[in-house]
Amino acid sequence: MESAFKKILLAFDNSEASRVALQKACDIASKFESEITALFVSSGNKDEGFADSKKFLEDFSSSKGIELDIIEKSGKVYNEVIKLEKEGDYSLILVGSHGKKGWQPFWMGSNAFKVISSSTCPVICSQESASDLSFDNILLPLADSSQTRQKISYCVKLAQAFGATVHILGVSKSKSKDTVKSVDAYVRQAERYLAERGVKYTVNTKYGINVPDTCIEYGASVNAGLMLIMTETESSGIFMDSYSQQLVNNSPIPVMAVHSRDTRLTGAAGY
To answer: In a 3-state reduction of DSSP, which class is residue 13?
Structure first.
């Protein structure tokens, strides 16, 4: 994963949420020397806000000292985002997940999740309320599935780059003895993995709770600027589709969704 986040794809429509996504993209690019491509998708009308979006992108990136390519496409947003991700071999996608303007009807509900579930790289979704959040604190929920640990490699890369504290949260809607034993084991493994790499961390566990609400509430309590989830279905229910969508659509904390089919995770020491 030495080349993590070298190519970033930003889906941009000039809404407040997509401007937050732009801010996050630039923050990451400054740490990883990433290339950023901003994609604007119109329905066919060339005057459909592209000129204003292009100017904002150019002015903002210039103020940050970051170069970015700007591409305009026509068609369905979901199709164009995924098509470009496949063609360009991007390592990270950023989108604004809500907003009163722009693509709100697209990004709300199950349609937003299509980008996450169809991509082969991680996707960070940000709401407009996340504009003041930094990456100084990262929330790492862990459930009772071996796949839940695969996102830790990305977590470590980000934590090392930003000098962040990782807040490990073992969670499950179940309080069974087997579940607690399984999650506790994954938490201890994560602790060792982070400690060996010099990453600061805290640990907490919560069982028998509403998982999405608990993740959001705990993330707010530790001032998390990012929450990492896996998009595969897990037996505990934490990252089953309905829960993932709740987190993506409702979390004021930016959510980074990682898919287990991500080939960049291969050889990442089981994490």
So the answer is: coil
